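F.,

This is the one I mentioned.
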């Protein structure tokens, strides 16, 4: 694993060097001084790098979840961001990656909440690294070690989640995510990626019992018993008008499909 830790500090160079030496000594790392003071080595199985220069202390550890790029939402970088369907998360967090299905499969409700909290603490996920900042005037070797341990734990959690299959994780999100629009998005991706499989049909059948009419409408064309589910969604007077229109359109698509069989 490639990992990095950078530490930029406003303290005198001699003080930064002393902190670097203390950190290196306690964790079996090595120190280099040019062009800036850098600590390198392996921390809990992850290669690390700590650089001391003017400014904040930046800490980064590597993760094998190289497909995840997440940072606070700003004007820059909005283009191409993957939408999870969670309006609060999507407004606050920019998530980029080559495969929307793989990303959403990682971003269940608990993970989205943790990411929002971490980003609020100036921790970002970029190019296979988890990066954090510390106060350059006060950070000492003990604090840096604690932050390394925390970011390493975050990386381990993401990697454990990512080790499970994408279809299985998407199915869990489609069936139990607390946000209905995320459940709908998961079903969309299941349909797009695995639409002709028995797995997709089973996910759809479970979703037909969802309390949200939009989820049921999304699931209808994917599974057996779609006509009853779509009719229920269309007739549900408590459902938002958009969901009922979508259900009607899907019902028409089902009828067209059935006539062709």
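My design for it:
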């Amino acid at each position: 694993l490639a990992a990095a830790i950078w530490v930029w500090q406003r303290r005198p160079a001699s003080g930064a060097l002393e902190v670097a030496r203390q950190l290196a000594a306690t964790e079996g790392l090595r120190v280099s001084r040019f062009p800036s003071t850098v600590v390198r080595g392996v921390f809990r199985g992850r290669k690390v790098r700590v650089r001391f220069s003017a400014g904040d202390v930046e800490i980064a550890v590597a993760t094998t979840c190289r497909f995840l790029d997440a940072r606070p939402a700003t004007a820059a970088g909005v283009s191409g961001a993957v939408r999870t369907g969670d309006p609060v998360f999507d407004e606050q967090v920019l998530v980029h990656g080559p495969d929307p299905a793989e990303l959403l499969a990682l971003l269940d409700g608990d993970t989205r909440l943790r990411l929002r909290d971490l980003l609020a603490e100036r921790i970002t996920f970029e190019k296979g690294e988890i990066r954090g900042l510390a106060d350059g005037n006060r950070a000492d070797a003990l604090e840096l070690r604690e932050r390394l341990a925390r970011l390493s734990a975050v990386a381990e959690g993401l990697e454990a989640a990512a080790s499970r299959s994408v279809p299985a994780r998407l199915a869990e999100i489609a069936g139990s995510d607390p946000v209905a629009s995320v459940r709908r998005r998961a079903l969309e991706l299941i349909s797009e990626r695995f639409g002709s499989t028995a797995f997709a049909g089973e996910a759809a059948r479970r979703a037909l019992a969802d309390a949200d009419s939009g989820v049921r409408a999304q699931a209808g064309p994917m599974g057996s018993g779609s006509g009853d589910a779509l009719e229920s969604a269309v007739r549900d007077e408590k459902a938002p008008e958009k969901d009922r229109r979508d259900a009607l359109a899907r019902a028409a698509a089902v009828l067209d499909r059935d006539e062709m069989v």
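The longest strand covers residues 37-43.

Talk soon.
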